[in-house]
Amino acid sequence: MKFCFFFALVFLVKPVFGQEPSAEQIHRHIRDLASDKMQGRGTGSPENAKAAHYIQKLFKKYKLTPLGSEGYYQPFTAKVRRVVVPDSLRETRNVVGFLDNKAPYTIVIGAHYDHLGLGRQGSSKDSLPEGKIHNGADDNASGVAGLLEMARYFSQNHTAEPYNFLFIAFGAEELGLQGSRYFLNNPTLPLEKMNFMVCMDMIGRYNPERGVGIGGYGTSDAWPTVFKGAESSIKFFTDRAGNGGSDNAAFYAKQIPVLFFHTGGHPDYHKPTDDSEKIDVKAEEAILRLEIKLLENAMQLPKMTFTAVK
Fold first, then answer.
1. Is the dihedral of CA 22, 67, 115, 51 positive or negative?
2. Largest Cα–Cα distance of the chain, in whole Å?
3. pLDDT tens digits for 52-74?
């Protein structure tokens, strides 16, 4: 009888535990998105479109509701401004999926999926970048892997959370936050319905001496309550600023509270050497588990009030 009870308990608990962030899943996503076949996911390239399709397929698998302007996609035209190129106007898209928990307000989780392609759109730190594949494993296949793992967890944890979730993979971040700015100027969900935004950009190169930085701590008076008692197997620290770093800055400009997860700079930043074998997937798994804890704390509170960081 005791054995039967134990077996039933394991059977019931296993599906929930099975959706926890997984280093194996993180590795698979980063390996696929940052392979040489993806040619650096430069904005406007066929490989950039393939990356968007990769994300769209998983949003569909996780049964997220399409919330782009064309299914899961929100197409827009991005412009290359940092260098002079003949194809300065490039068609790309955001990928948008909605988890409807029938709640009045929504938490936005985002990461950009584009990178520098073959080094012909500016921003490369390589001395001779043209023609070289910039795989962008940390920047930002690592963040997209985090986005997909968060979508998997919250869509399959058999819990109707007190907030909805809007998962967005942004295009053209490397060209100046163009995807997130386009979304905010053409929102598919009213901005007043958004509680806060969480951004993941470069979360794959954890340095235990530094720890993972979490920006945006000053963008709402509620964040200290959310972080109270938060523990993790990895080191982390907070920063008050919310208006820099990545797509979180676009949300901050619209007076939406933000958090920005980032493991810091490294010698491979914006170089062809930002490859998948250098990613610490175990540490990224721990970062995502910390993020879930903070989100669960935040969901116990009313809708946040934005505060400007001075």
1. positive
2. 74
3. 999 999 999 999 999 999 999 99
Do residues 150 and 167 touch, judged by C-beta distance below 8 A? yes
Q: Which residues are catalytic?
A: 173
pTM across the whole model: 0.94
Q: Please, are residues 131 and 204 in contact by the beta-carbon 8 Å criterion?
A: no
Contact by Cβ (8 Å): 251, 184:
yes
Nearest-angstrom CA–CA distance, 308 and 219: 6
- Bridge partners of 194, per DSSP, are 106
Tens digit of pLDDT for each residue in 210-259? 999 999 999 999 999 999 999 999 999 999 999 988 999 999 999 999 99
What is the token pair recorded at 262? Answer: 């980032």
What are the structure tokens assigned to 238, written together? 């907070």
Helix ranges restricted to H, the chain? 2-17, 23-33, 46-61, 142-156, 178-185, 223-227, 248-253, 281-298
Burial (CB < 10 A; 0-12, 13-18, 19+), residue 113, is buried
Q: How many CB atoms lie within 10 A of CB 244?
A: 12
DSSP string, 197-248: EEEE-S-S---TTT-EEEE-TTSBTTHHHHHTT---SS-EEEES--SSSSTH
